[in-house]
Amino acid sequence: MITMDESAKSILDEYFEKDNPPPLRVYIRPRATLGNILSLQPGSVSEHDAVFQVGGYTVVINKRLQEQVGSVSIEGDGKGFALSSERPLS
Is the pTM here over 0.85, yes or no? Predict the structure, then answer.
């Protein structure tokens, strides 16, 4: 399951106000010394994805990644997005 707070939805609504939004992909972003984090970027849907409709947006995550992290929460943090998961990345 993927959830999105109102702040994140507002950021997306403002960004995509004139365009049809593409699917948004939850993915692992490596950080050199701080370890990996979940992040969000425009993407496409593949047969290996779980697909969710959240706040009027299509959000996708690789099924294997979803099994690893469980539920994902997308929150707006003023500068962008903060993603947290039910189970931390290892």
Answer: yes
